[in-house]
Amino acid sequence: MSFKCPLCMRIFSQRFAYTQHAQKCLKNVEVEVEEDDDNNDSEKYSSEMDTRSNLSSEYENDKVEVDDDNDVQNMSFDSIGSAISEMSLEDSNFENILDSSEEPEIFEEPKNLNTKTCTEFPNDAYKDLMLLVTKYKINNKGGNEIIRFFNKHSNLTESPLPKNIEQGRAFMNNMKFSNLEFSKVLITKHEDKDYFLYYQNLIQCIKNILTVPDITQNFALSYENYEYNRESIYSEQNTGKWWKTTQESLPTGSKLLSIILYSDATTTDTLGKSQLHPIYITLGNIPIWRRNKQDAKQLLGYLPILEAANKDLVRDTFHKSLRHLLEPIILLKDELMMKCVNILKMIHKDLFAHNFFWDLPNINIYLATVPDRMHHLDLGLFRYQIIFTCDILKSQHVNGNKLVEEVDRRLAAIPRFPGIKIFSNGLQSIARLTASEYRSLMKVMIFVIDNLYDENNNEVDNFVNNDDLTKLYEYWNEMYILSRYEEFSESDLEKFNDAIHRWAWMFVKAFKFVSPSNLKLPKLHSWVYHIIDSIRSYGAINGYTTETYESLHKYFVKIPYQISNKKDVEPQLLQTIKRQAISIRMSQHSVNPAKTPRTCKFSARLFEFSLQDANTFFNEKKDSVDNKMQTGFARFISCLDSYLDLLDGFTIIGEIRINIYGSVTLENVAIMRATNRYHNKVWFSDIAISMDSEESNDYISDKGLCYGQALLLAEVLTDPPLNLALIQWYDFKSKRNPYLYGCPHLKLIELYNFVAIESIHGVVHIVP
Q1: Which of 34-38, 141-145, 209-213, 531-535 has the lowest mean pLDDT?
Q2: What is the pLDDT of residue 592?
Q3: Which is more confidently placed, 689 or 339?
Q4: Of 28, 319, 494, 647, which one's alpha carbon is 20 to 30 angstroms from that of 123?
């Protein structure tokens, strides 16, 4: 147990030391308050009475204080119905899908005795300060300096700000919003330690989601028989067979509300020694594109993590927590109403203990547990594929370690590209890779493996030849691309099923002799045999991706944990989350002025010269730039003349100034670079150029696109200015076989041109 002083925030491990410090600290506050004659009642917020209240509550019990406020207890689904009244439902049964439930107790920070709970700040200055501190995560010391600076230079007789940031945070903690209240309940005791569940009322969470602006637009309430060319199409959840079957079993006029839960433990520190287990909720009635945004999800609570070797006890604690969270559903007496709720529980744990879902009528939890692409593929099967590949290279080849080193060298040599992780140190840190980093590996590994080693000249047993290993990664890419379809027809599902089995067959063939478990991988079985049926039942996989849930860990776990004192963290996390939510709510009324879009925006100016002095300038600079930029200098005048010849009646004079830039932001917000000094490394972007319809017949293009590499980015200051890129062109390496592994197979050629930056389609990643 630890003790924290609420005045100076010092932490003491012993009660005696804390008591002595508290008495001294309290006297200092009393003296400060007596000397300040200008303080009004609101400024005495943290005076003697308040301080003694805080000291007493923390001294007596280091746990969270509880009061008997029952705002959440009387919630009903009627209030949720009002949030979606704009949908003009013909039947009122939708409002009765869920009913109210009793909550045990509301958790709050101990209240200061002189402070009344409210929903508004004392004034705008007070509000703006606390929103600033909360948004930018300014610590108490920095916030107090802001207060001192304001009070010193504002020339006000009475400061509108809190006395200190601690007082401001306490004020926000005491602000009363029914949709920001959390409860706690004791789930179990083990070895003299209490394990609590901290949670929001499930009905309130649903109400919070439905009150998000635009969330009820296209809100699905009925099954949609989506067909194209006489084929069933599966996309949104309400196009799946589960929705159809469930809707047909409902009483006439009833509506269906689909609840999706996601829970996964996450580490709170870089060493992974501490964990929290958040659980989130969203609704399957919301369209996929909207549902995958963060504000379409709510934190339902933090599940207790039992520290015990007894797995049955751990699972029992887990299911007790879920039973309590879903009690508003469980308490519904009408069995027919239970059919209105689909519980999709994407929890990555074994469920061999008693599963309370077995007690719920009309729900098959095993069918409702949808395979999640991020954990099944990105962090699961692809991770196995990388690990097993390295094992093969090490064990089946005489120079195995050298082959792994060659893989690392090839990975490090791949050019940088926005959004793609470059593995400059190879695969040494594979155990700590994120899902995003694994997706970066997916895009390049096939080129790394291609032509990596020779055939089995040493007659190694169970040899995996290079062609098979390359095909494995090719089949993976085909399967993964199909998995990201936004909708599936029956023919798409057949193609997807064939791609899955083609990859799985090659996976087993390549790795059956290096897998410690002989490839007894639950994720492999689930993916191969259940994902197709899951799509038919619940719609496209994109509706159940967990990328946004994982990003919520940062907002609801990692950031609040970092600013806590790391002791009894759940109450502190919830207070931080409440302040963040208040900050967002109070900031929604401010409107940012619309920015006028620009066709292109140059940045990082490198050189400036006049056209008539260009050759002299290039000779002076050629030894200080990269060879690609040297090539650009050498071709500059001739390419500019050729470009101007295409512009009828457009001439420029020698005095015209020209700027050379290191980067330019395109209309699609992509950044194109041509510089030898970007973080001390060269970066010359590869780009795709949209060909004019009249020109496209003169070139072999990739569906109207041609490719080039930017050597110079120039702004010619005519009226109007010319925004140009000097590029070196790519051509297909083979006209007979222009594609390799589904990608254009290209080579740089000695052809150079200026092109208008406005004609550049975007930046592309070309892997050597």
Answers
A1: 34-38
A2: 56
A3: 689
A4: 28
E strand or H helix that includes residue 106? strand 106-107
Residue pair 688/677 in contact (Cβ under 8 Å)? The answer is: no
Report whether 650 contacts 721 (CB < 8 A). Answer: no
Which three-class secondary structure string do you get for 583-652? HHHHHCCCCCCCCCCCCCEEEEEEEEEEHHHHHHHHHHHHHHCCHHHHHHHHHHHHHHHHHHHCCCCCCC
Please, which residues have CB within 8 angstroms of residue 230's CB and are 6 or more apart in sequence?
Answer: none
Specify the long-range contacts of residues 4-11, CB closer than 8 Å, at least 24 apart. 4/58, 4/565, 4/567, 5/55, 6/51, 6/54, 6/55, 6/58, 6/166, 6/170, 7/46, 7/51, 7/166, 9/140, 9/166, 9/565, 11/565, 11/567
Q: Which residue has the higher pLDDT, 49 or 491?
A: 491
Distance CA 257, CA 207 (A): 12
Tell me, what's the pLDDT at 639? Answer: 94
Give dist(CA 501, CA 497) in Å, integer: 6
- For residue 321, the SS3 value is helix
Around Cβ 634, how many Cβ atoms within 10 Å?
Answer: 15
The conformation of residue 557, written as its DSSP 8-state character, comes to I
Residues with Cβ within 8 Å of residue 582, at least 6 apart in sequence? 134, 172, 175, 177, 180
**For 704-742, b where at least 16 C-beta lie within 10 A, e where not — what string?**
ebbbbbbbbbbbbeeeeebbbbbbbbbbbeeeeeeeeee
pLDDT on residue 147: 95
pLDDT tens digit string along 223-253?
999 999 999 999 999 999 999 999 998 888 8
- Interatomic CA distance for residues 20 and 10, integer angstroms: 13
Distance CA 373, CA 478 (A): 15
pLDDT tops 50 at residue 59: no
Specify the pLDDT at position 117.
Answer: 62
Report the residue count for the chain: 768
CA-CA-CA-CA torsion for 93, 94, 98, 100, nearest 10 degrees? -80
Mean pLDDT for all residues in the chain? 81
Tell me if 298 sits within 8 A of 200, measured CB to CB: yes
Paired strand residues for 302: 198, 278
| DSSP string for residues in 671-736 | EEEEEEEETTEEEE-EEEEEPPTTTGGGS--BTTEEEEEEEEEEEE-SSSPEEEEEEEEEEES-SS
What burial class does residue 118 get, using C-beta atoms within 10 Å of its C-beta: 0-12 exposed, 13-18 middle, 19+ buried? exposed
The residues pairing with 732 across neighbouring beta strands, listed in sequence order, are: 746
pLDDT at residue 42 above 70? no
Q: Which DSSP letter does residue 420 get?
A: B
Backbone φ and ψ of 499, nearest 5°: -65, -40
DSSP 417: B
